[in-house]
Amino acid sequence: MTAPAASPLTEDHLARLVQVFYERARAHPGLGPLFNTAVADWEHHLGIVQDFWSHALLGTQRYTSHPYPVHLGLPIRREHFGQWLDLFRPAALETLPGDAAARAIAQAELMAASFRAGLFPFDPLHAP
């Protein structure tokens, strides 16, 4: 017997990921104030984030920028990286097909480590 084929990743999956993650992030005691202060137009922001994940996971060309510079002026603290991942991982597992969830989580972990290294270059090297 062969295992059933994994369902293909769709834009609907990505829209749901972004929605679920940001619902949780906006309500989070550590991340909520940061997001709710930094984002003025949530519909626009969610669209940009979905475009990012569409580019990262589906190879679309809707997102052609780089997310790091946008975050440079924000009051991000070290603990935000772990909090972000603690919300992102279950959101990805709940909303994306298995292999896509694993790829999204790996991408998020890489981004968190890269952003943290850029924002806090003198911190010891360890996972966010």
UniProtKB/TrEMBL annotation:
Q: Which residues form the signal peptide?
A: none
* GO MF annotations, alphabetized: heme binding; oxygen binding
Per its UniProt entry, which superkingdom is the organism in?
A: Bacteria
InterPro entries, sorted: Globin-like_sf, Globin/Proto
Identify the CDD domains for this entry: TrHb3_P
Give me the segments passing through the membrane: none
Under what name is this protein listed?
Globin family protein
